[in-house]
Amino acid sequence: MSLEIKEVQQLSPGAEQHAKRKTFLKVIGSRVLGAAGVLLAVATLAFFAMRLVPGDPVDALLGGPGNNATEEVRNTTRELAGLDKPLLVQYGTYLGKLVTGDLGDSYQLREPVAQVLADQLGNTLLLAVLALATAWVLALGLALWASRGGRIAAVVGNLLEVISAAVPHFWLGSLLILVFSVNLQLLPATSGAPGIDSLILPVLTLAIPLAGFLGQVMRESMLIAMTSPFAISARARGESEIQLSLRHALRHAALPGIGLSGWAMGSLISGAVVVETVFARPGIGRTLLQSVLVRDVPVVLGCVVLVAAIYIIVTLLSDLAERLADPRLRAQ
Amino acid sequence: MTQGIEAPEIETRHLAAEPTRRDTPGSSRRLPTLGLGIVLPFIVLIGLVIAAVLPSWIATTGALDMDPAQAFAAPGAAHWFGTDESGRDVFSRVIFGTRSSLLIGVLATLIGLGVALVLGALAGLGTKAVDFGVSRFLEVLFAFPGLLLALLVITILGPGVVTTTIAVGLSAAPGYARMIRSQVLSIRRSGYVEAAIVQGKSGGYIIVRHILPNVAAPLFVLATLGVGQAIVWASSLSFLGLGATPPDPEWGSMLSQGRLYIGNAWWLTFFPGLFIVLSAASTTLLGHGIQRKLKDR
Fold first, then answer.
1. Chain B contacts of A278, Cβ < 8 Å?
2. pLDDT, tens digit, for every residue of A155-211?
3. Nearest chain A residue to B274, by CA
């Protein structure tokens, strides 16, 4: 791709623009294809992994291993569920249904998995998106504040490291409940009811450790920006340090944050398993935990594929957004 | 929580330090911070290891000793961290819990590193096709973020302490494998390996004499960082009811039980969590401290 651009540089500016757009479209195309490939592989891996779950799925369908179903009933159930067919045929059926959004039926709830997940997805996405936005604001503030360098900033850096790596969600959430629900009685300790005040604590629980991590990354790229040639030229023009950091360096601080958003979204949804349990909040995370506990294979499979799909899509989007926000990446 | 998914490595200190200060090694302003960053977590860790090896030296009662008359006693001289609903001493339980938490953390990290070493070395040393295959496989595993991979493993293996350890180790493996792969690749392309090839040394000789020693140091850092993460993950799984079960003195499950009484006995929630943070923070800070030392060298 770099060769292509070198050739293009000798052409007229208009042709260069056109060629650049073409390269960009090519990049998008290959990324989308790659993402689709990973998604297919994820669905495949998850399907065959779930085949390793011990026990006969027919037992699960008939209400657990202790059921007294006759051999005849078992066979009928097996046939109805398609479990008598060869594994590869079952895999094909699963993929075909997956494309149409059919994830099978829950063993325990006797409902279509797609329906169960659709009911819960909104709750979890709301939580995750709000947490991501909160983490962003906190992290940018931290990066701005700590970007001067020196010893205090180094201490802050260490502190952020500890918060992001060592504080478990379940402890942070419990402490927030202890302070704001039990002692101050300001906010509800559970998050089942709709409304903003029941969302504040779960969002903070998810956002604070993430902000610690993003803040570190943003601080680092901001420090690089503050010593780069454009910063020196801005200082030479007479801009103050504050102007410089707000007008120029902040954008640089945000860049790695954009690129990491896919990863952040994944870690937020994973964190939601814990946070939804702590705050008794309905959502994908709690559904997943419940189905892991009772080995409700279709629901586990559906949750895992759904979360992986969200992760892959957000990663793809953040990748492209980073390209749009950072002209240097487009030239590569 | 950023635990979970292997995240891009962060190195901030060399950016925070001004060049002038860096050039004067005698300057006393920089050295103490660096020293303290290693010494303090190291001391905490030594304390935790002592608690893990000889809990009965430190604990005031047994881990399961009940005293219903003393139930829900607040922290004080008799019970430093208070007592729980059955009058068990929380301090002693937390101390007795250190062993299993550290052990799970270390074992899970070793499992993760073992799997990762095979995958990473295969990708880094193998042919282009092998590298491509392994790298795509890792990419697929990365799409199961954080606890998701661990939950998948637990669905198959069932809940319990042993399966939790395996699950945590396996879900950390993709991140380790990616780092080991890039480390092996960069050493493989380095000048001294090329020189050894030119000298006609065998592949086995190069791996043993050049590649392994150079992977060992970063691997040690990775392991130190990994233990903290593994402790947090394993305790999270216990908290969710998938790992250790009550009345075992495990920090995550103690906290999960203690939360039922959060309204009247805050210490049941606070102290087990504090020890998770202490152990995870000390290993993380120590790991980063060693990492910086190695980079400065």
1. 259
2. 777 777 778 888 999 999 999 998 898 888 888 877 777 778 888 899 999 999 998
3. A171
Q: What is the secondary structure of B70-137 as a DSSP string?
A: GTTPPSSSSSTT-B-TT--BHHHHHHHHHHHHHHHHHHHHHHHHHHHHHHHHHHHHS-HHHHHHHHHH
Pick the closest to residue B237 from B163, B146, B149, B164 (CA basis). Answer: B164
Q: With 80 as the cut, is the pLDDT of residue B191 above it?
A: yes
Q: Is residue B208 assigned to a domain?
A: yes
Q: Do B4 and B171 meet the contact criterion of CB atoms below 8 Å apart? A: yes
Nearest-neighbour CA in chain B from A68: distance (Å): 24
**Domain membership flag for residue B26:** no
Other C-beta atoms lying within 10 Å of the C-beta of residue B27 = 11
| A-contacting residues in B 121-150 (Cβ below 8 Å) | 136, 139-140, 143-148
Domain count, chain B: 1
Contact (Cβ atoms closer than 8 angstroms) between residue A166 and residue B232? yes
**Amino acid present at A222:** M
Phi-psi region of A150 (alpha: psi -120 to 50; beta: other; left: phi over 0): left
Has residue A253 got a pLDDT over 60? Answer: yes
The rounded distance, in Å, linking the Cα atoms of B252 and A278 is: 13
Q: Which domain holds residue B158?
A: 36-55+80-296
* CB spacing of A154 vs B262 below 8 angstroms: no
A38-84 pLDDT tens trace: 999 999 998 888 888 887 777 777 766 667 777 788 888 777 777 77
Decide if the complex's ipTM is over 0.90.
no
The sign of the dihedral angle between the CA atoms of A149, A152, A154, A160 is negative
Q: At B278, which CATH number?
A: 1.10.3720.10
Global pTM reads 0.83
**Under an 8 A CB cutoff, do B240 and A273 touch?**
yes
Domain contains B61: no
Name which of A165, A268, A286, A217 is nearest B172 in CA terms. A165
Burial group, residue B131, by CB count within 10 angstroms (0-12, 13-18, 19+): middle
- Count residue pairs from A and B with Cβ separation < 8 A: 203
Identify which of B22-26, B145-149, B245-249 has the greatest average pLDDT.
B145-149
Residue type, B54: L
Q: What single-letter amino acid sits at B51?
A: A
Separation of alpha carbons A272 and A266, rounded Å: 10
Domain-located, residue B260: yes
